[in-house]
Design a protein that fits this description.
Elements lengths: L7 H14 L13 H5 L3 E2 L6 E2 L2 H12 L3 H8 L3 H16 L13 H7 L25 H5 L1 E4 L6 E6 L2 E3 L13 H6 L4 H7 L11 H35 L3 H8 L2 H12 L2 H4 L3 E5 L5 H8 L4 E6 L2 H13 L19 E5 L5 H4 L7 E6 L12 H11 E8 L2 E9 L6 H5 L7 H11 L4 E3 L11 E7 L10 E7 L12 E14 L9 E4 L11 E12 L19 E12 L6 E11 L4 E3 L3 E4 L1
Parallel strand pairs: 6-7, 6-9, 7-8, 9-10
Antiparallel strand pairs: 1-2, 3-4, 4-5, 11-13, 11-15, 12-17, 14-18, 15-16, 15-17, 18-19, 19-20, 19-21
Helix pairs in contact: 9-10, 12-14
């Protein structure tokens, strides 16, 4: 498709203006990979890439080079061991955002931040005291494992050290905490908190007040260990998730989905005022197809991010083979205008750990994050994190809207017709069992448009440019009535369940020349997302005409068909990372206003 380039001059002027405003600050040509640093051993400095063999040498370096007196802050704030853990995680989180841990001032680069660092200016309660900072900010942070703490501020001398999950205290070991079975609890998928408590033992000791002190220390350590276990569980799910995308089969399916790929191609290639000269972040790049489109559209720099090591390597090779790979070691005069793509193996949330980039420095954020029923796989949270941390204020996010829709489906949307005639044989007994199972588990399949029997309802709409992460969880109440096409033949029509799908929009807010809609509707060309089917426990008879019915007949039966189905659907992120829970509440309403409700159905996807 040929698209006009009518906004190129305007985009170039905008970029030149940005360069003048940021003169003297770290630019895109100054970004560099920190991947090699992360691979090294030793304890990583809180502020720079230096590593040390011991915590004492690390904190000495922090004091001398970064004006961070760790032990002074600990003493001045009266921190216990768990306060120390919170402080370290808090500082690491601020440094990752290029913000001063003391005054919260933001900077354009780590070097600028390190030049600014100063003695603390904190009065009262420190911002690190939130229990959220008990969770390790950096995976496998060896500093937390080696951290020791001596409390000299009381009558008792209580020294405590944590080493690989073991806790000891003065007077011969006040508490012993063993986490030897935590990995097993993660592997078998059982409740992590419950298994954690089963795997912990408290060893009684002599001494007055030992039980209460042991319990207090155990409660605090429980918070630390639970956060660590949750982080490991999330990592385990993420490893499986990213590993599943290492298979070329799924990428072949996605690339072969013309509805999907054409929508992104048209949004990127046919909006020159947005893309010409833009800096672009591609979250979850896979093979790198969206980055290739962005480069072809005239982007000045594209950073492609993927959590799969294999796909990051593949995307790098693909960009190189097409002459689009950025080489940071190449002299500026040797670079060609099209060599703009850099591929980074990391999760979006950890991008700052891998490369140094200007904060909120991207003009465009693009991602194909949608899963079944839109929210399955929960990649949206990573996209929102990238939007908040890496996209310029007012920058474009593609797509920028998403809407979940639904409708009732008829008998043709089930497997019943197939089993009723299998090479001339009646196997309907199997069909009934399959349908019964479908009432407990969601089914991802294509529903033909002629099998939709009700009007379409909008469940929920998301504005991806402004929404918050907690808005991913929602409840929607709506009503379904028979559509005109379902009432061509007079009589009763049975609704067997509700089917959900989604539309995403590349709207005129950012795509001014050529807005695009990507639809997974049953009324559109099928996509690899298909639709998500939720089958009722029993079909509901419906009619469009008012009729006199006997008071003894149950609503939703042939004798008393429903005029309306009232439904309430909740979609929330499940306790298992990257999964969602869906609850479906159903009430049939007859023409005389009588109602019949069914027990709520709970589905997990």
């Amino acid at each position: 498709m040929e698209c006009g380039r009518a906004g190129q001059d305007e985009a170039e002027e905008r970029l030149m203006s940005d360069e003048e405003e940021e003169e003297g600050e770290e630019g895109w040509d100054d970004w560099c990979s920190d991947g090699d640093d992360d691979a090294g051993g030793g304890l990583l400095c809180l502020f720079c890439s230096s590593r040390f063999d011991s915590e004492s040498s690390l904190f000495s370096h922090c004091g001398a080079e970064h004006r961070f007196d760790f032990h002074g802050v600990v003493r001045g704030s009266g921190l216990d061991f768990y306060g120390c853990i919170k402080l370290i995680n808090f500082v690491r989180s601020k440094v990752a955002e290029n913000k001063c841990w003391s005054c919260d001032q933001a900077f354009g680069s780590n070097s600028e931040l390190c030049s600014h660092l100063h003695a603390p200016r904190i009065e009262g309660k420190g911002p690190w005291e939130d229990d959220a900072y008990l969770k390790p900010f950096m995976e496998d942070d060896s500093l937390l494992h080696s951290l020791s703490f001596d409390d000299d501020g009381g009558d008792e001398d209580c020294g405590m050290s944590i080493e690989r999950g073991e806790c000891s205290a003065g007077n011969g070991g006040l508490a012993g905490l063993r986490l030897n079975k935590l990995d097993d609890s993660i592997e078998d998928g059982s409740d992590i908190s419950a298994r954690f408590q089963q795997g912990c033992t408290i060893e009684p000791t002599n001494g007055e007040g030992s039980e209460s002190l042991a319990q207090e220390q155990n409660d605090k350590q429980l918070k630390v260990a639970r956060a660590s276990v949750n982080a490991k569980a999330i990592k385990s799910v993420d490893d499986s998730y990213f590993g599943s995308y290492s298979s070329f089969g799924i990428h072949r399916e996605m690339l072969g989905d013309k509805v999907r790929t054409d929508a992104y191609r048209d949004a990127l290639l046919c909006n020159p005022s947005l893309m010409s000269g833009a800096t672009v972040l591609d979250v979850g790049c896979g093979t790198g197809i969206l980055s290739l489109f962005a480069a072809k559209a005239g982007a000045s720099r594209v950073v492609a991010v993927d959590g799969s090591a294999k796909m990051a390597s593949v995307a790098t090779q693909v960009a190189k083979n097409n002459g689009l790979l950025y080489d940071e070691n190449m002299q500026v005069q040797q670079k060609q205008g099209s060599q703009v793509i850099s591929v980074v193996h990391t999760k979006a949330e950890e991008l700052n750990h891998k490369i140094q980039i200007p904060p909120n420095g991207f003009d465009v954020l693009v991602s194909e994050w949608m899963g079944y029923c839109l929210l399955y796989e929960s990649m949206l949270s990573s996209v929102l994190y990238a939007r908040d941390h890496f996209l310029k204020p007012g920058g474009a996010i593609l797509p920028d809207t998403a809407t979940i829709l639904g409708a009732g489906f008829g008998r043709g949307g089930t497997s019943l017709p197939f089993w009723e005639n299998v090479y001339g044989f009646d196997m309907s007994c199997i069909g009934k069992e399959v349908t019964s199972t479908s009432a407990r588990f969601p089914v991802v399949d294509v529903v033909a448009s002629q099998d939709i029997v009700t009007e379409t309802a909008v469940l929920h709409s998301f504005d991806l440019a402004t929404m918050k992460e907690n808005e991913m969880d929602f409840t929607s109440s709506f009503e379904l009535r028979l559509s005109e096409s379902a009432t061509i033949v007079p009589g009763v029509t049975r609704c067997h369940g509700i089917v959900l799908w989604f539309d995403t929009g590349f709207t005129g807010r950012f795509c001014k020349e050529n807005p695009v809609i990507l639809s997974t509707s049953p009324f559109s060309t099928p996509t690899h997302w298909s639709q998500t089917i939720f089958t009722f426990e029993e079909p509901i008879a419906m009619t469009k005409e008012e009729s006199l019915v006997g008071s003894s007949a149950s609503v939703g039966t042939d004798e008393c068909p429903a005029m309306t189905i009232r439904s309430r659907i909740s979609i929330v992120r499940a306790s298992e990372h990257r999964s969602i829970d869906i609850s479906v509440e159903t009430t049939a309403v007859s023409s005389d206003g009588r109602q019949r409700s069914w027990p709520v159905q709970i589905f997990n996807l």
